[in-house]
Amino acid sequence: MTTAALPWFTGTSINPLLRSAHLSMSGHEVTLYIPWIEPEKQNTIYPAQFSFQTKEEHALYIFKWLRNDAKLPQAALNMKLAFYDAHLHKPHNSLYAMGETVEQIESLERFSLLEDNFTANKMNITSALYLPQIIVLEEPEHLNWYAYRNGAQSAWRRFPFVIGIIHTNYVVYARTESVSRIKWINKILQPIFGSLKAYATLGISRWMCAAHTHAIIRLSHSLPKLSAPHDDVSNVHGVRSIFLDTGYAKAITSRFYDPSIISATLIKNQPILSQTTPNLCQSSLQFRRRTNNYQHEHSTNGAYFIGKMLWQKGLDELGHLLTKTQQAYGGHLPGIFHIIGDGPHLESISRKFHHLGLDVSFQGRMDHADVPPYRVLINPSKTEVLCTTVSEALAMGKWVILPHHPSNTFFTQFPTCLIYKNHNQFIQAYSYALHHEPPPLSRFLRHTLSWHAATHRFCQLTAKVSTKKKKNQLLRPRHRLAAAIHCHLGRGFLGDLIRTVAGGGFYLGFQSRYVRQQKKNYNKLSSSLQQQPIAGNFSC
Protein backbone atom coordinates (compact mmCIF):
# COMPACT_ATOMS: atom_id res chain seq x y z
CA MET A 1 0.00 0.00 0.00
CA THR A 2 1.35 3.40 -0.92
CA THR A 3 0.45 7.08 -0.67
CA ALA A 4 0.57 8.13 -4.34
CA ALA A 5 -0.13 6.78 -7.81
CA LEU A 6 0.85 7.54 -11.38
CA PRO A 7 0.51 9.86 -13.24
CA TRP A 8 1.71 11.80 -10.19
CA PHE A 9 5.40 11.17 -10.86
CA THR A 10 6.81 11.14 -7.36
CA GLY A 11 8.96 8.69 -5.42
CA THR A 12 6.04 7.17 -3.51
CA SER A 13 4.18 6.38 -6.73
CA ILE A 14 7.03 5.09 -8.89
CA ASN A 15 9.16 3.13 -6.39
CA PRO A 16 6.34 1.03 -4.83
CA LEU A 17 5.01 0.28 -8.32
CA LEU A 18 8.40 -0.94 -9.55
CA ARG A 19 9.00 -2.89 -6.33
CA SER A 20 5.64 -4.63 -6.81
CA ALA A 21 6.44 -5.30 -10.46
CA HIS A 22 9.79 -6.96 -9.72
CA LEU A 23 8.36 -8.99 -6.84
CA SER A 24 5.60 -10.25 -9.15
CA MET A 25 8.22 -11.32 -11.70
CA SER A 26 9.88 -13.36 -8.94
CA GLY A 27 6.80 -15.56 -8.74
CA HIS A 28 4.93 -13.82 -5.91
CA GLU A 29 1.25 -12.89 -6.11
CA VAL A 30 1.33 -9.11 -5.61
CA THR A 31 -1.42 -6.51 -5.32
CA LEU A 32 -0.54 -2.82 -5.13
CA TYR A 33 -3.06 -0.77 -3.11
CA ILE A 34 -3.09 2.82 -4.43
CA PRO A 35 -5.15 6.01 -3.90
CA TRP A 36 -8.20 6.81 -6.02
CA ILE A 37 -9.21 10.46 -6.46
CA GLU A 38 -12.63 11.47 -7.74
CA PRO A 39 -12.49 12.62 -11.42
CA GLU A 40 -13.47 16.22 -10.64
CA LYS A 41 -10.52 16.54 -8.21
CA GLN A 42 -7.83 14.84 -10.29
CA ASN A 43 -6.68 18.07 -11.94
CA THR A 44 -5.37 19.25 -8.56
CA ILE A 45 -2.73 16.53 -8.50
CA TYR A 46 -2.35 14.99 -11.98
CA PRO A 47 -1.07 16.73 -15.15
CA ALA A 48 -3.82 18.38 -17.20
CA GLN A 49 -3.76 15.76 -19.97
CA PHE A 50 -4.72 12.95 -17.57
CA SER A 51 -8.25 12.29 -16.39
CA PHE A 52 -9.74 8.95 -15.35
CA GLN A 53 -13.49 8.54 -15.09
CA THR A 54 -13.25 5.05 -13.61
CA LYS A 55 -10.79 2.99 -11.60
CA GLU A 56 -10.58 0.64 -14.56
CA GLU A 57 -9.23 3.47 -16.76
CA HIS A 58 -6.68 4.42 -14.13
CA ALA A 59 -5.48 0.83 -13.71
CA LEU A 60 -5.17 0.41 -17.47
CA TYR A 61 -2.99 3.54 -17.69
CA ILE A 62 -0.64 2.18 -15.00
CA PHE A 63 -0.37 -1.23 -16.67
CA LYS A 64 0.41 0.46 -19.99
CA TRP A 65 3.09 2.58 -18.29
CA LEU A 66 4.66 -0.59 -16.88
CA ARG A 67 4.68 -2.20 -20.31
CA ASN A 68 5.71 0.76 -22.48
CA ASP A 69 7.73 3.10 -20.25
CA ALA A 70 9.17 0.80 -17.59
CA LYS A 71 9.68 -2.00 -20.18
CA LEU A 72 8.16 -4.61 -17.85
CA PRO A 73 5.43 -6.29 -19.93
CA GLN A 74 5.51 -9.50 -17.90
CA ALA A 75 5.00 -7.59 -14.65
CA ALA A 76 2.01 -5.81 -16.18
CA LEU A 77 0.45 -9.23 -16.73
CA ASN A 78 1.45 -10.68 -13.35
CA MET A 79 0.54 -8.07 -10.74
CA LYS A 80 -2.81 -6.63 -9.66
CA LEU A 81 -4.00 -3.18 -8.61
CA ALA A 82 -6.57 -2.15 -6.01
CA PHE A 83 -7.79 1.30 -4.99
CA TYR A 84 -8.69 3.07 -1.77
CA ASP A 85 -10.53 6.40 -1.58
CA ALA A 86 -8.16 9.32 -1.05
CA HIS A 87 -8.26 13.06 -0.42
CA LEU A 88 -5.68 15.71 -1.31
CA HIS A 89 -4.93 17.66 1.87
CA LYS A 90 -3.71 20.97 0.43
CA PRO A 91 -1.83 22.23 3.53
CA HIS A 92 0.48 19.19 3.20
CA ASN A 93 0.12 18.74 -0.58
CA SER A 94 -0.30 15.02 0.20
CA LEU A 95 -2.87 12.30 -0.37
CA TYR A 96 -4.47 10.62 2.64
CA ALA A 97 -6.79 7.62 2.77
CA MET A 98 -10.49 8.23 3.34
CA GLY A 99 -12.64 5.61 5.02
CA GLU A 100 -11.96 1.91 5.42
CA THR A 101 -8.65 0.52 4.15
CA VAL A 102 -7.49 -2.27 6.46
CA GLU A 103 -11.06 -3.52 6.82
CA GLN A 104 -11.45 -4.00 3.04
CA ILE A 105 -8.29 -6.00 2.34
CA GLU A 106 -10.00 -9.41 2.28
CA SER A 107 -12.69 -8.27 -0.19
CA LEU A 108 -10.69 -5.90 -2.38
CA GLU A 109 -11.81 -5.33 -5.96
CA ARG A 110 -8.56 -6.17 -7.75
CA PHE A 111 -7.76 -5.21 -11.33
CA SER A 112 -5.49 -7.26 -13.56
CA LEU A 113 -4.63 -7.44 -17.23
CA LEU A 114 -4.91 -10.66 -19.19
CA GLU A 115 -2.50 -11.38 -22.01
CA ASP A 116 -5.20 -11.82 -24.61
CA ASN A 117 -6.83 -8.45 -23.88
CA PHE A 118 -3.70 -6.27 -23.77
CA THR A 119 -4.69 -4.89 -27.16
CA ALA A 120 -8.41 -4.79 -26.39
CA ASN A 121 -7.79 -2.56 -23.34
CA LYS A 122 -10.08 -4.58 -21.09
CA MET A 123 -9.52 -5.40 -17.45
CA ASN A 124 -10.13 -8.50 -15.43
CA ILE A 125 -11.80 -7.62 -12.09
CA THR A 126 -11.95 -10.04 -9.18
CA SER A 127 -13.40 -9.69 -5.67
CA ALA A 128 -12.54 -13.18 -4.43
CA LEU A 129 -11.42 -13.64 -0.82
CA TYR A 130 -7.89 -12.27 -0.49
CA LEU A 131 -5.65 -13.18 2.46
CA PRO A 132 -2.18 -11.69 1.97
CA GLN A 133 0.67 -13.17 4.00
CA ILE A 134 2.82 -10.02 3.90
CA ILE A 135 1.68 -6.39 3.95
CA VAL A 136 4.18 -3.75 2.82
CA LEU A 137 3.29 -0.22 3.94
CA GLU A 138 5.15 2.39 1.92
CA GLU A 139 5.29 5.31 4.39
CA PRO A 140 3.51 3.59 7.32
CA GLU A 141 3.45 6.77 9.41
CA HIS A 142 1.79 8.76 6.61
CA LEU A 143 -0.75 6.00 5.94
CA ASN A 144 -1.89 5.95 9.57
CA TRP A 145 -1.79 9.57 10.79
CA TYR A 146 -5.38 10.46 9.86
CA ALA A 147 -6.66 6.99 8.97
CA TYR A 148 -10.10 5.66 9.93
CA ARG A 149 -9.98 3.38 12.95
CA ASN A 150 -12.74 1.21 14.39
CA GLY A 151 -11.26 -1.15 16.97
CA ALA A 152 -9.22 -4.31 16.48
CA GLN A 153 -10.46 -4.87 12.91
CA SER A 154 -8.54 -1.70 11.92
CA ALA A 155 -5.17 -3.02 13.12
CA TRP A 156 -2.70 -3.74 10.35
CA ARG A 157 -0.97 -6.36 12.49
CA ARG A 158 -3.95 -8.67 12.32
CA PHE A 159 -2.21 -9.84 9.14
CA PRO A 160 0.69 -12.32 9.53
CA PHE A 161 3.56 -9.94 8.73
CA VAL A 162 3.63 -6.16 8.20
CA ILE A 163 6.74 -4.32 7.06
CA GLY A 164 7.00 -0.55 6.59
CA ILE A 165 9.37 1.35 4.30
CA ILE A 166 10.19 4.91 5.35
CA HIS A 167 10.54 7.23 2.35
CA THR A 168 10.33 10.76 3.73
CA ASN A 169 11.86 12.72 6.60
CA TYR A 170 8.64 14.37 7.77
CA VAL A 171 10.37 15.63 10.92
CA VAL A 172 12.58 17.95 8.85
CA TYR A 173 9.59 19.04 6.77
CA ALA A 174 7.69 19.94 9.94
CA ARG A 175 10.67 21.84 11.35
CA THR A 176 11.22 23.92 8.19
CA GLU A 177 7.59 24.53 7.18
CA SER A 178 6.53 28.19 7.15
CA VAL A 179 4.04 29.35 9.79
CA SER A 180 3.11 32.64 8.09
CA ARG A 181 3.25 34.24 4.66
CA ILE A 182 4.53 37.45 6.24
CA LYS A 183 8.32 37.16 6.27
CA TRP A 184 9.12 38.94 9.54
CA ILE A 185 6.42 37.03 11.44
CA ASN A 186 7.68 33.75 9.99
CA LYS A 187 11.27 34.65 10.93
CA ILE A 188 10.26 35.14 14.57
CA LEU A 189 7.76 32.30 15.02
CA GLN A 190 9.09 29.59 12.72
CA PRO A 191 12.04 28.48 14.93
CA ILE A 192 9.68 28.08 17.92
CA PHE A 193 6.68 26.47 16.22
CA GLY A 194 8.93 24.53 13.82
CA SER A 195 10.66 22.75 16.70
CA LEU A 196 7.34 21.99 18.41
CA LYS A 197 5.89 20.59 15.17
CA ALA A 198 9.02 18.50 14.62
CA TYR A 199 8.80 16.92 18.08
CA ALA A 200 5.07 16.25 17.60
CA THR A 201 5.63 14.71 14.16
CA LEU A 202 8.41 12.48 15.47
CA GLY A 203 6.32 11.32 18.44
CA ILE A 204 3.24 10.51 16.35
CA SER A 205 5.32 8.79 13.64
CA ARG A 206 6.96 6.57 16.27
CA TRP A 207 3.53 5.74 17.66
CA MET A 208 2.19 4.76 14.21
CA CYS A 209 5.17 2.52 13.41
CA ALA A 210 5.12 0.87 16.83
CA ALA A 211 1.37 0.25 16.53
CA HIS A 212 1.07 -1.08 13.00
CA THR A 213 4.28 -2.77 11.82
CA HIS A 214 6.42 -5.76 12.70
CA ALA A 215 9.47 -4.10 11.14
CA ILE A 216 10.52 -1.02 9.22
CA ILE A 217 13.23 -0.36 6.66
CA ARG A 218 14.78 3.11 6.66
CA LEU A 219 16.32 4.02 3.32
CA SER A 220 19.20 5.91 4.94
CA HIS A 221 20.66 6.95 8.28
CA SER A 222 19.24 10.46 7.82
CA LEU A 223 15.92 9.15 9.15
CA PRO A 224 15.27 8.98 12.89
CA LYS A 225 14.48 5.63 14.49
CA LEU A 226 10.72 5.15 14.71
CA SER A 227 10.22 2.66 17.57
CA ALA A 228 9.15 -0.23 15.36
CA PRO A 229 9.63 -3.78 16.73
CA HIS A 230 12.52 -4.22 14.27
CA ASP A 231 14.54 -1.57 12.45
CA ASP A 232 16.93 -1.89 9.49
CA VAL A 233 18.69 0.60 7.22
CA SER A 234 19.02 -0.36 3.56
CA ASN A 235 18.50 1.14 0.12
CA VAL A 236 15.71 -1.06 -1.24
CA HIS A 237 15.06 1.24 -4.20
CA GLY A 238 16.42 0.76 -7.71
CA VAL A 239 16.27 2.61 -11.00
CA ARG A 240 14.36 1.74 -14.16
CA SER A 241 16.18 -0.12 -16.91
CA ILE A 242 15.86 2.87 -19.26
CA PHE A 243 18.36 4.79 -17.09
CA LEU A 244 20.78 1.86 -16.91
CA ASP A 245 20.49 1.34 -20.67
CA THR A 246 21.23 5.03 -21.25
CA GLY A 247 24.29 4.83 -19.02
CA TYR A 248 25.52 1.65 -20.68
CA ALA A 249 25.11 3.12 -24.18
CA LYS A 250 27.05 6.18 -23.06
CA ALA A 251 29.78 4.07 -21.43
CA ILE A 252 30.52 1.89 -24.48
CA THR A 253 30.92 4.98 -26.68
CA SER A 254 33.22 6.64 -24.16
CA ARG A 255 36.91 6.99 -25.01
CA PHE A 256 37.54 5.30 -21.64
CA TYR A 257 35.49 2.18 -22.41
CA ASP A 258 36.97 -0.97 -20.84
CA PRO A 259 35.02 -4.20 -21.62
CA SER A 260 36.57 -5.95 -18.61
CA ILE A 261 34.86 -3.49 -16.25
CA ILE A 262 31.76 -2.42 -18.17
CA SER A 263 29.62 -5.35 -19.29
CA ALA A 264 26.19 -5.82 -20.81
CA THR A 265 25.57 -8.60 -18.28
CA LEU A 266 23.86 -6.11 -16.01
CA ILE A 267 21.29 -5.19 -18.61
CA LYS A 268 20.20 -8.83 -18.63
CA ASN A 269 19.61 -8.64 -14.86
CA GLN A 270 21.99 -11.47 -14.10
CA PRO A 271 23.41 -11.54 -10.55
CA ILE A 272 27.02 -10.49 -10.16
CA LEU A 273 28.98 -12.46 -7.59
CA SER A 274 32.33 -10.76 -7.97
CA GLN A 275 32.80 -7.33 -6.46
CA THR A 276 36.01 -6.53 -8.31
CA THR A 277 35.49 -2.79 -8.72
CA PRO A 278 38.03 -0.01 -9.11
CA ASN A 279 39.16 1.72 -5.93
CA LEU A 280 36.67 4.48 -5.17
CA CYS A 281 37.29 7.65 -3.22
CA GLN A 282 34.86 8.50 -0.45
CA SER A 283 35.49 12.25 -0.25
CA SER A 284 34.82 15.04 -2.72
CA LEU A 285 38.19 16.53 -1.74
CA GLN A 286 39.74 13.68 -3.72
CA PHE A 287 37.61 14.00 -6.82
CA ARG A 288 40.49 15.41 -8.87
CA ARG A 289 42.68 12.47 -7.86
CA ARG A 290 40.15 9.82 -8.88
CA THR A 291 39.60 11.33 -12.34
CA ASN A 292 43.23 12.04 -13.26
CA ASN A 293 42.93 9.75 -16.28
CA TYR A 294 39.93 11.63 -17.68
CA GLN A 295 40.92 14.47 -19.93
CA HIS A 296 39.55 17.99 -19.92
CA GLU A 297 36.36 18.43 -21.93
CA HIS A 298 35.72 21.90 -23.36
CA SER A 299 32.12 21.25 -24.38
CA THR A 300 29.34 20.72 -21.87
CA ASN A 301 25.61 20.06 -21.93
CA GLY A 302 25.03 22.06 -18.76
CA ALA A 303 23.75 21.40 -15.27
CA TYR A 304 20.27 20.96 -13.80
CA PHE A 305 18.09 20.31 -10.76
CA ILE A 306 14.99 18.10 -10.98
CA GLY A 307 12.38 17.64 -8.28
CA LYS A 308 9.22 18.92 -6.66
CA MET A 309 9.13 22.71 -6.35
CA LEU A 310 9.21 22.99 -2.56
CA TRP A 311 11.53 25.21 -0.54
CA GLN A 312 12.18 22.20 1.70
CA LYS A 313 13.92 20.50 -1.24
CA GLY A 314 16.95 22.77 -0.72
CA LEU A 315 16.13 25.34 -3.39
CA ASP A 316 16.99 28.23 -1.08
CA GLU A 317 20.45 26.70 -0.60
CA LEU A 318 20.70 26.11 -4.37
CA GLY A 319 20.08 29.82 -4.98
CA HIS A 320 22.81 30.70 -2.48
CA LEU A 321 25.32 28.27 -4.04
CA LEU A 322 24.62 29.46 -7.59
CA THR A 323 24.99 33.08 -6.48
CA LYS A 324 28.43 32.31 -5.00
CA THR A 325 29.37 30.46 -8.21
CA GLN A 326 28.20 33.37 -10.34
CA GLN A 327 30.31 35.79 -8.29
CA ALA A 328 33.34 33.51 -8.65
CA TYR A 329 32.87 33.53 -12.44
CA GLY A 330 32.74 37.32 -12.64
CA GLY A 331 28.97 37.80 -12.62
CA HIS A 332 27.87 35.02 -14.97
CA LEU A 333 27.21 31.32 -14.47
CA PRO A 334 29.20 29.00 -16.78
CA GLY A 335 26.12 28.31 -18.90
CA ILE A 336 22.39 28.32 -18.19
CA PHE A 337 21.26 26.32 -15.17
CA HIS A 338 18.06 24.32 -15.73
CA ILE A 339 15.40 23.76 -13.06
CA ILE A 340 12.91 21.01 -13.88
CA GLY A 341 9.76 20.29 -11.89
CA ASP A 342 6.47 21.62 -10.64
CA GLY A 343 4.93 22.22 -7.26
CA PRO A 344 3.16 24.62 -4.90
CA HIS A 345 6.20 26.89 -4.37
CA LEU A 346 7.13 27.25 -8.06
CA GLU A 347 6.08 30.90 -8.32
CA SER A 348 7.96 32.07 -5.23
CA ILE A 349 11.06 30.04 -6.18
CA SER A 350 11.07 31.49 -9.70
CA ARG A 351 10.66 35.00 -8.31
CA LYS A 352 13.54 34.51 -5.86
CA PHE A 353 15.95 33.15 -8.49
CA HIS A 354 15.24 35.98 -10.91
CA HIS A 355 15.61 38.49 -8.07
CA LEU A 356 19.09 37.06 -7.46
CA GLY A 357 19.89 37.70 -11.12
CA LEU A 358 20.71 34.07 -11.84
CA ASP A 359 20.79 32.74 -15.39
CA VAL A 360 18.22 30.02 -14.72
CA SER A 361 15.68 28.32 -16.98
CA PHE A 362 12.49 26.85 -15.45
CA GLN A 363 11.26 24.00 -17.64
CA GLY A 364 8.25 22.62 -15.79
CA ARG A 365 7.43 19.00 -15.01
CA MET A 366 9.25 16.33 -17.00
CA ASP A 367 10.05 12.63 -16.63
CA HIS A 368 13.74 12.28 -15.81
CA ALA A 369 14.14 9.91 -18.76
CA ASP A 370 12.99 12.70 -21.10
CA VAL A 371 15.36 15.36 -19.75
CA PRO A 372 17.93 16.59 -22.32
CA PRO A 373 21.43 15.13 -21.87
CA TYR A 374 22.74 17.58 -19.31
CA ARG A 375 26.01 16.44 -17.80
CA VAL A 376 25.65 17.48 -14.15
CA LEU A 377 22.82 16.98 -11.63
CA ILE A 378 22.91 19.18 -8.53
CA ASN A 379 20.75 18.32 -5.53
CA PRO A 380 21.49 20.44 -2.42
CA SER A 381 18.57 19.04 -0.41
CA LYS A 382 19.15 17.82 3.14
CA THR A 383 15.53 16.76 3.67
CA GLU A 384 15.81 13.82 1.28
CA VAL A 385 16.02 10.29 2.61
CA LEU A 386 17.48 8.74 -0.52
CA CYS A 387 16.95 10.81 -3.64
CA THR A 388 15.62 8.74 -6.57
CA THR A 389 16.69 11.28 -9.19
CA VAL A 390 20.29 11.08 -7.95
CA SER A 391 20.26 7.29 -8.46
CA GLU A 392 18.82 7.80 -11.94
CA ALA A 393 21.47 10.39 -12.85
CA LEU A 394 24.26 8.08 -11.65
CA ALA A 395 22.79 5.23 -13.70
CA MET A 396 22.80 7.49 -16.78
CA GLY A 397 26.50 8.17 -16.28
CA LYS A 398 26.22 11.79 -15.12
CA TRP A 399 28.07 13.74 -12.49
CA VAL A 400 26.06 14.41 -9.35
CA ILE A 401 27.01 17.12 -6.85
CA LEU A 402 25.63 16.60 -3.34
CA PRO A 403 26.11 18.06 0.15
CA HIS A 404 27.90 16.12 2.87
CA HIS A 405 24.89 14.55 4.63
CA PRO A 406 23.81 11.09 5.93
CA SER A 407 21.14 10.85 3.22
CA ASN A 408 23.91 10.78 0.59
CA THR A 409 26.11 8.11 2.19
CA PHE A 410 24.96 5.42 -0.26
CA PHE A 411 26.06 7.55 -3.24
CA THR A 412 29.63 8.16 -2.06
CA GLN A 413 30.72 4.76 -3.42
CA PHE A 414 30.23 6.05 -6.99
CA PRO A 415 33.17 7.79 -8.74
CA THR A 416 30.80 10.28 -10.39
CA CYS A 417 29.46 11.56 -7.05
CA LEU A 418 31.12 14.78 -5.85
CA ILE A 419 30.46 15.75 -2.23
CA TYR A 420 30.90 19.30 -0.93
CA LYS A 421 30.97 20.71 2.62
CA ASN A 422 30.95 24.46 1.82
CA HIS A 423 30.36 26.81 -1.08
CA ASN A 424 34.06 26.86 -2.08
CA GLN A 425 34.07 23.08 -2.53
CA PHE A 426 30.78 23.35 -4.42
CA ILE A 427 32.27 25.86 -6.86
CA GLN A 428 35.30 23.61 -7.45
CA ALA A 429 33.13 20.54 -8.00
CA TYR A 430 30.70 22.44 -10.26
CA SER A 431 33.49 23.82 -12.43
CA TYR A 432 35.28 20.49 -12.66
CA ALA A 433 32.14 18.51 -13.54
CA LEU A 434 31.10 20.93 -16.26
CA HIS A 435 34.43 20.57 -18.04
CA HIS A 436 35.31 16.91 -17.55
CA GLU A 437 33.73 13.76 -18.89
CA PRO A 438 32.31 11.49 -16.15
CA PRO A 439 34.15 8.18 -15.75
CA PRO A 440 31.97 5.16 -16.67
CA LEU A 441 30.64 3.00 -13.84
CA SER A 442 31.80 -0.56 -13.30
CA ARG A 443 29.49 -3.49 -13.89
CA PHE A 444 29.10 -4.10 -10.17
CA LEU A 445 28.18 -0.48 -9.39
CA ARG A 446 25.60 -0.41 -12.15
CA HIS A 447 24.10 -3.62 -10.82
CA THR A 448 23.93 -2.03 -7.35
CA LEU A 449 21.60 0.62 -8.78
CA SER A 450 19.25 -1.86 -10.47
CA TRP A 451 15.82 -2.95 -9.25
CA HIS A 452 17.05 -6.53 -9.46
CA ALA A 453 19.62 -5.81 -6.73
CA ALA A 454 17.19 -3.66 -4.72
CA THR A 455 14.54 -6.40 -4.72
CA HIS A 456 17.15 -8.92 -3.59
CA ARG A 457 18.10 -6.65 -0.67
CA PHE A 458 14.42 -6.23 0.25
CA CYS A 459 13.74 -9.98 0.19
CA GLN A 460 16.81 -10.71 2.31
CA LEU A 461 15.70 -8.25 5.00
CA THR A 462 12.11 -9.51 4.95
CA ALA A 463 13.24 -13.13 5.35
CA LYS A 464 15.52 -12.22 8.25
CA VAL A 465 12.80 -10.34 10.15
CA SER A 466 10.05 -12.89 9.45
CA THR A 467 12.29 -15.56 11.03
CA LYS A 468 12.49 -13.47 14.20
CA LYS A 469 8.71 -13.05 14.16
CA LYS A 470 8.18 -16.80 14.03
CA LYS A 471 10.32 -17.07 17.16
CA ASN A 472 8.20 -14.38 18.88
CA GLN A 473 11.23 -12.12 19.22
CA LEU A 474 9.60 -8.96 17.82
CA LEU A 475 6.49 -7.66 19.59
CA ARG A 476 6.68 -6.28 23.11
CA PRO A 477 3.79 -5.20 25.37
CA ARG A 478 4.38 -1.55 24.44
CA HIS A 479 3.86 -2.35 20.75
CA ARG A 480 0.55 -4.09 21.44
CA LEU A 481 -0.52 -1.23 23.72
CA ALA A 482 0.29 1.35 21.03
CA ALA A 483 -1.95 -0.51 18.55
CA ALA A 484 -4.82 -0.89 21.03
CA ILE A 485 -4.80 2.80 21.96
CA HIS A 486 -4.69 4.00 18.35
CA CYS A 487 -7.38 1.63 17.07
CA HIS A 488 -9.81 2.46 19.88
CA LEU A 489 -9.02 6.15 20.35
CA GLY A 490 -9.78 6.75 16.67
CA ARG A 491 -13.37 5.46 16.84
CA GLY A 492 -16.52 7.51 16.29
CA PHE A 493 -16.94 11.21 17.03
CA LEU A 494 -13.98 11.31 19.45
CA GLY A 495 -11.68 9.98 16.73
CA ASP A 496 -13.01 12.56 14.25
CA LEU A 497 -12.44 15.33 16.76
CA ILE A 498 -8.85 14.24 17.49
CA ARG A 499 -7.99 13.96 13.79
CA THR A 500 -9.50 17.36 13.05
CA VAL A 501 -7.61 19.13 15.84
CA ALA A 502 -4.38 17.29 14.91
CA GLY A 503 -4.37 19.00 11.50
CA GLY A 504 -6.75 16.92 9.40
CA GLY A 505 -9.31 19.70 9.08
CA PHE A 506 -13.06 19.31 8.76
CA TYR A 507 -12.95 16.93 5.78
CA LEU A 508 -9.95 14.65 6.31
CA GLY A 509 -10.51 14.60 10.07
CA PHE A 510 -14.10 13.35 9.90
CA GLN A 511 -13.30 9.80 8.81
CA SER A 512 -16.08 8.11 10.82
CA ARG A 513 -18.67 10.44 9.32
CA TYR A 514 -17.28 9.68 5.85
CA VAL A 515 -17.66 5.91 6.42
CA ARG A 516 -21.23 6.32 7.66
CA GLN A 517 -22.10 8.40 4.59
CA GLN A 518 -20.50 5.87 2.24
CA LYS A 519 -22.48 3.01 3.79
CA LYS A 520 -25.66 5.08 3.64
CA ASN A 521 -25.12 5.80 -0.07
CA TYR A 522 -24.37 2.13 -0.73
CA ASN A 523 -27.54 0.98 1.04
CA LYS A 524 -29.61 3.56 -0.84
CA LEU A 525 -28.17 2.40 -4.17
CA SER A 526 -28.77 -1.27 -3.33
CA SER A 527 -32.35 -0.51 -2.32
CA SER A 528 -33.08 1.38 -5.54
CA LEU A 529 -31.63 -1.44 -7.66
CA GLN A 530 -33.79 -4.02 -5.87
CA GLN A 531 -36.93 -1.95 -6.47
CA GLN A 532 -36.36 -1.61 -10.22
CA PRO A 533 -38.56 -3.99 -12.27
CA ILE A 534 -36.75 -6.46 -14.50
CA ALA A 535 -37.70 -5.81 -18.10
CA GLY A 536 -38.24 -8.67 -20.54
CA ASN A 537 -40.71 -11.31 -21.75
CA PHE A 538 -40.58 -14.76 -20.21
CA SER A 539 -42.33 -17.82 -21.59
CA CYS A 540 -42.17 -21.53 -21.05
From TrEMBL:
Protein localization: Membrane; Plastid, Chloroplast
Instruction: Supply the Pfam families for this chain.
Output: Glycos_transf_1
Keyword tags? Chloroplast, Glycosyltransferase, Membrane, Plastid, Transferase
The keyword Chloroplast appears for this protein = yes
Molecular function via GO: digalactosyldiacylglycerol synthase activity
Q: Does the keyword Nucleus apply?
A: no
**Source organism (scientific name):** Aureoumbra lagunensis
Protein name, UniProt field = digalactosyldiacylglycerol synthase
